[in-house]
Design brief:
The complex is a heterodimer of chains A (764) and B (327).
Chain A: H1 7-12, H2 28-32, E1 48-54, E2 60-66, H3 68-71, E3 76-80, E4 88-89, E5 103-104, E6 110-111, E7 117-123, H4 126-133, E8 137-142, E9 158-159, E10 165-167, H5 170-176, E11 179-187, E12 199-205, E13 208-212, H6 218-229, E14 236-239, H7 255-267, E15 271-274, E16 290-298, E17 304-316, E18 337-347, H8 360-378, H9 382-388, E19 400-401, H10 406-417, E20 429-431, E21 434-446, E22 453-459, E23 464-467, H11 477-489, E24 496-499, H12 516-541, E25 556-558, E26 561-563, E27 572-573, H13 574-581, E28 585-591, H14 599-607, E29 620-621, E30 623-635, E31 641-651, H15 658-677, E32 683-684, E33 689-690, E34 709-713, H16 737-749
Parallel strand pairs in A: 1-15, 13-14, 17-18, 19-29, 23-24, 31-34
Antiparallel strand pairs in A: 1-7, 2-6, 2-8, 3-7, 4-5, 9-18, 10-18, 11-16, 12-13, 12-15, 16-17, 20-21, 21-30, 22-23, 22-28, 25-26, 26-27, 30-31, 32-33
Helix pairs in contact in A: 8-16, 11-12, 15-16
Chain B: E1 5-8, H1 12-19, E2 24-27, H2 33-39, E3 46-49, E4 59-61, E5 65-69, H3 74-79, H4 81-86, H5 88-95, H6 100-105, H7 108-112, H8 166-172, E6 176-178, E7 183-185, H9 186-189, E8 211-215, H10 218-221, E9 223-228, E10 239-247, E11 254-262, E12 269-270, H11 272-278, H12 285-293, H13 307-325
Helix pairs in contact in B: 5-8, 11-12, 12-13
The chains are: A alpha+beta (764), B alpha+beta (327).
The structure holds flavin-adenine dinucleotide and iron/sulfur cluster.
């Protein structure tokens, strides 16, 4: 792949609508005015409502459920229990591995976590369903639960050999190093906490199923539904026009989704099921709690000799989640000796899942705090420390970086922040009762790549339609795809309408791992290019074309008008031209897969993640990079930490729309501030139950917690990462914020807090 | 459906009569009542909407006293210029409470009646045991997650924190609650749990709060409310203090001082021990910090809330220091 050589890209990039222009979100007005209709806001005739009942124990068996009172309550249509819900087939996992069980029951007889769905009530109205659900009587045989990583019964867990990364002799080199630090870093269970809850409407017409559900992956979820109900993939249509936040949580069809679709099938009525707020903390997994130890041995000049890293994350009793804790540890710094290993520990929780930068985020918390500790140990400036150990190539694969503007990020961030004025000693800056501290940390995220498909239509009136089953959850897909099509075709951006969020559109893989923008801009660029070729081909060759007489070998389209490059001959708008040749549309379907791809491979490509292209494929190692500089103010009496300044310099390669990229970066930084200071799922250890599963008690930052944030783009187009030269944006900026804050807190107070979140009692 | 009847009262008389019915609850701004109904904690059989009663939202402030109608909105009281100048701690307690949206809806009467944020109290489905909800059923919090629970005024029956802010300022300045037929000192209106955790207020069926009255004083004029919490806004207090200070002519010696604590006790907590230790003394940081420690006499922690014992005296000290600086 080469960086797309767009003539007008270079000259027009100042234009708002061009790729690289700061066009505002095209979906903004609809969202602000409330006109945007989210998935489960559809009004359907005959709609009925399902409400779930969750287990109140964390481990054991449901021994009996008394349904009588609920069944006779007003409006109740069905009470579903493990015994009365229809049997579903097992579905393959997201890698496409076949199911371990032939059948699947989304309501549990064997309870493995508190809140697990054990029954559902369907009624004519939502209120009736809620009231009847409270009438179910449930008996359990409770068994002891393993509540969290520190539970005595938890043990050391299961080694995950695939996570092992080793070179040199790390233990011996650490033992021999003249300077050593070793510390343990913990992150708690965190939740995605999207504003829009999970939920869906399911409707069957014969054996065709339509699902309106917020989704980060229409094709993947449609496959799961199709497998559960044993219907062809094409029979399932998933609709997800807007998504009110996903952060990794909305990529899979989950147990509650199955309950709603089964209820709709059993009753022959469309069913709406929306998780209430507490259920959004127990029905799907947030970020797993993690523990890491990082040991670094260095020589007296600060050159790292060895890194020994051990990590543990929690997973479920009946589900596997690996949060790759050595992902940043193994690539951030040059070291001749390295060892990272990881275990997972089964506890009684819903299986943890992806939350923004799974793996990289907690991994960076460990290594980026540890390098700071080493810097203080040696009396070396923490920024200098990072430069001394700068990795000129990928230390793990030994491949060249595709692009790594991290040095530039350190320089630009330090300059804008005023890092040079930092006094080295902790507790050396104050303002009244506020101790002030400065911290730095780096972050990174791999460039995940995949293939996509898009349809581009040029219509009779000269307008353009782009269709794709990819989605926009606020990150700006509608906008950048409109920009890409407009620029490629040479039409004004307001003449382009982008249609997303329908699994019957041209297919797309998962929106996760910061891959969508790179994949889909490349795909739309290709499809739009094909449409343009066809348009120009027709203009040159169609007997009815006014350009035919020109005998030119090419034409150009600008601002929606067709003309010869030198301007001689006729000039027509696309609409006039379409009328002249009597066409009502030109349609091109483009994809980035090799032509030899079989139908089966295509299906697998869009409905599983098995065909993602590794970021270290070929000669290069591809990552986005960033450097965060943070100022905190810590009240010396109260221990309260407030972030007063953030400057981040980031390398996401070429930005398709800097305004949207900056928003994504800032969103990541804000989420990182929450992670550093506030967020924690608090478990009652007697019951294995989250007790703060609501937005009043699960603390997320408010506006008052967020200072002005300055972001600086230091990226250059990366030809090895994507068709148009961009790298990942969405997850990058959350990586490294928490350690930058923890490092700043140390600089302010002289106290090292290695357990997130840094709440006030840890500092008083 | 959980059915209930809805009644709109257009006079205090009508509200009182209806409130005497069994299972009746008043509805003012609804920010507590509807929230608790959704959690399954409040299950009224009759909801009496008092929000349309005329004349109950007046805010009448003179140097002598503030009289605030029960239906006055939190945001209106917080922004009232005379409240700000004559009772700054009251204004500060209000604007640091809840969120802007809630303050625009919530009333002063409802605010006094807000319930604890104890997570066990708010989740009857998962935690049936709660003496406050179901007398005699036990306390789920003791032995559980207690980071937000009280260290002062606790009993074996209940350790739930009184969560509000306004009432902390009110107890500091000897405010009274007007229930129509009777008036009570705010300190007596709130009840510590003892063996009857379910009784939080000295109010009887059929009684309606009509107003609160706060006597004016030099200490109220020079007062402040400091609220400490992990999140900068929209969080209940980890610890808070309402403090008022009147100094002698020398600008150093304490003539009158009022100190009350929030976020650490089972009711809004007046701390006379600190007041007594400082009255007649010349202020210095050292004296202030030492005296503030007296607030924690009798404090009992349950593990995760231990930090409150260290934190609360610092909040008091900082409040006094702040007032001392603004002489
Ligand atoms: C998320 C959240 C955060 C919050 N944060 C804070 C905070 O930081 N600090 C703080 O102080 N508060 C906080 N609150 C509580 C808030 O201040 C109260 O909910 C509010 O003041 C209640 O007033 P209301 O008019 O809405 O009461 P309602 O909900 O209408 O009524 C509450 C109760 O009072 C009774 N009642 C109402 N009026 C009268 C009357 N005149 N006489 C007798 N009984 C009456 C009702 O019957 C009901 O039982 C928070 C609330 C929420 C939901
Ligand atoms: S502390 Fe009080 S309110 Fe909380 S569970 Fe115990 S009795 Fe109930």
């Amino acid at each position: 792949m080469t960086v797309h050589d767009m003539k007008h890209a270079a000259s027009d990039s100042a234009r708002l609508e061009a790729v690289g222009g700061r066009l505002s979100r095209v979906d903004g007005p609809a969202k602000i005015t409330g006109a945007a209709k989210y998935a489960f806001e559809q009004q359907l005739e005959g709609l009925v409502h399902a409400v779930l009942v969750g287990a109140t124990i964390a481990a054991g068996k449901v021994s009996a459920i008394d349904r009588r009172a609920a069944e006779t309550a007003p409006g109740v249509l069905a009470v579903l229990t493990p015994d009365t819900i229809m049997e579903l087939k097992g579905a393959s996992d997201w890698l496409g591995n076949p199911p371990s069980q032939q059948t699947y029951n989304p309501l549990a007889r064997e309870v493995t976590y508190s809140g697990q769905h054990i029954a559902a009530v369907v009624a004519e109205t939502f209120e009736q369903a809620v009231a009847a659900a409270a009438l179910l009587k449930v008996w359990y045989d409770e068994t002891p639960a393993i509540v969290d990583l520190s539970d005595g019964k938890a043990g050391d867990g299961i080694p995950i050999d695939a996570m092992t990364k080793e070179w040199g002799d790390a233990q011996a080199a650490f033992a021999a190093a003249p300077v050593r630090i070793c510390a343990a870093y913990n992150t708690p269970r965190e939740f995605q906490a999207a504003m829009e809850p999970h939920g869906l409407i399911a409707r069957w017409e014969g054996d065709e199923l339509t699902i309106w559900e917020p989704s980060q992956w229409l094709d993947g979820m449609a496959r799961t539904y199709a497998e559960w109900f044993g219907v062809p993939f094409e029979n399932v249509r998933l609709v997800s026009p807007y998504i009110g936040g996903g952060f990794g949580s909305k990529a899979l069809a989950l147990a509650h989704s199955a309950v709603a679709a089964a209820a709709a099938k059993m009753l022959g009525r469309p069913v709406k099921l929306v998780l209430n707020r507490p259920q959004n903390f127990t029905s799907y997994g947030g970020r797993a709690a993690t523990r890491q130890t990082v040991a670094i041995g260095a020589d007296r000049d600060g050159r790292i000799q060895s890194i020994v890293h051990r990590g543990v994350n929690e997973t479920a009793v009946d589900g596997m989640w690996v949060e790759p804790l050595g992902s940043v540890t193994s690539i951030m710094y040059a070291t001749p000796n390295f060892s990272s290993r990881q275990n997972v520990v089964r506890v009684n929780t819903v299986v943890p899942g992806a939350k923004r930068a799974p793996g990289e985020n907690p991994s960076a918390f460990g290594i980026e705090c540890a390098i700071d500790e080493l810097a203080y140990e040696l009396g070396i400036d923490p920024l200098e420390m990072r430069l001394i150990n700068y990795a000129e190539q990928d230390p793990h694969t030994k491949k060249a970086w595709s692009t790594r503007q991290l040095r530039e990020a350190f320089a630009a961030g330090a300059e804008a922040f005023g890092w040079a004025k930092r006094p080295p000693e902790p507790r050396s800056m104050r303002d009244g009762h506020q101790l002030i501290g400065w911290g730095v940390a780096a972050g990174t995220y791999p460039v995940r790549r995949a293939h996509g498909e898009a349809v581009v239509k040029i219509l009779a009136d000269g307008s353009v339609e782009v269709e794709s089953s990819s989605i926009d959850m606020g990150q700006g897909t509608y906008t950048i795809l409109a920009q890409t099509a407009a620029e490629t075709l040479g039409v004004p951006v307001e003449r382009v309408s982008v249609k997303l969020g329908d699994s019957h559109f041209a297919r797309a893989g998962v929106t996760g791992g910061s891959r969508l923008a790179g994949v889909m801009t490349g795909t739309v660029y290709k499809a739009a290019g094909q449409a343009l070729d066809e348009l120009i081909g027709l203009a040159l060759s169609d007997p009815r074309s006014p350009f035919q007489a020109l005998q030119a070998n090419t034409l150009q389209v600008r601002d929606g008008r067709i003309a010869s490059p030198r301007g001689e001959g006729p000039e027509l708008s696309i609409a006039e031209f379409m009328a002249a040749i009597g066409r009502d549309q030109i349609e091109a379907k483009g994809d980035t897969l090799p032509a030899s791809t079989t139908a089966e491979e295509r299906y697998k490509n869009y409905t599983t993640i098995a065909m993602s292209i590794p970021h270290t494929d070929g000669d290069y190692s591809r990552y986005s990079w960033c450097a965060h500089f943070v100022e905190v103010r810590v009240d010396e009496d109260f221990g309260t930490v407030r972030v007063s300044r953030v400057v981040s310099a980031l390398d996401s390669g070429r930005l398709y729309n800097p305004k949207l990229a900056e928003s994504q970066w800032k969103g990541g930084i804000i989420m990182g501030i929450g992670q550093a200071l506030l967020e924690e799922g608090i478990v009652d250890r007697r019951h294995g139950r989250i007790v703060n599963g609501n937005f009043a008690d699960y603390m997320l930052p408010t506006n008052a917690d967020i200072p002005d944030i300055q972001t600086i783009s230091v990226g250059i187009p990366d030809p090895h990462s994507s068709a148009l030269g961009g790298k990942g944006v969405g997850e990058l900026a959350i990586v490294g914020i928490a350690p930058a804050i923890a490092n700043a807190v140390f600089h302010a107070t002289g106290k090292r807090v290695r357990d997130l979140p840094i709440t006030l009692e840890k500092l008083i | 459906m959980r059915d209930f009847s809805y009644l709109r009262a257009d006079s205090i008389e009508a509200a009182r009569n209806a409130a005497a019915l069994p299972g009746a609850m008043l509805l003012a701004g609804g920010t507590t009542l509807i929230d608790l109904a959704k959690c399954g904690v409040a299950e009224p059989s009759t909801v009496i909407d008092i929000s349309h009663i005329e004349g109950l939202n007046a805010i009448d402030v003179t140097a002598d006293r503030a009289v605030i109608g029960a239906l006055a909105r939190m945001s209106h009281v917080a922004d009232n210029p005379r409240v700000k100048s004559l009772f700054p701690a009251v204004s500060e307690a209000l604007w640091q409470a809840a969120s802007a949206q809630l303050r625009n809806m919530a009333t002063i009467g409802g605010n006094l009646m807000q319930r604890t944020r104890c997570p066990y109290f708010r989740d009857p489905q998962n935690f049936p045991a709660c003496n406050k909800r179901a007398p005699g059923s036990g306390c789920s919090a003791i032995g559980g997650v207690t980071r937000g629970h009280a260290v002062l005024g606790v009993s074996e029956a209940c350790i739930a924190t009184y969560p509000g802010d306004l009432a902390v300022a009110l107890v500091a300045f000897d405010a009274e609650v007007d229930l129509g037929q009777r008036k009570l000192k705010i300190e007596d209106f709130f009840l510590a749990p003892g063996a009857t955790a379910e009784r939080e207020h000295d109010i009887h069926p059929g009684e309606v709060i009509t107003a609160i009255e706060i006597p004016g004083s030099a200490a109220a004029r020079r007062s402040t409310y400091i609220k400490v919490r992990d999140r900068q806004s929209y969080e209940f207090a980890a610890a808070s203090a309402a403090v008022g200070l009147e100094l002698e002519g020398d600008g150093r010696t304490v003539r009158d001082i009022r100190v009350a604590l929030g976020g650490v006790a089972t009711k809004p907590w007046r701390v006379r021990a600190v007041e007594d230790a400082l009255k007649g003394k010349a202020l210095s940081e050292d004296t202030i910090r030492k005296a503030s420690e007296l607030a924690m006499e009798g404090a009992v922690d349950h593990g995760a809330n231990h930090y409150k014992i260290a934190l609360a005296p610092r909040v008091i000290a900082r409040s006094i220091l702040k007032l001392g600086e603004t002489a």
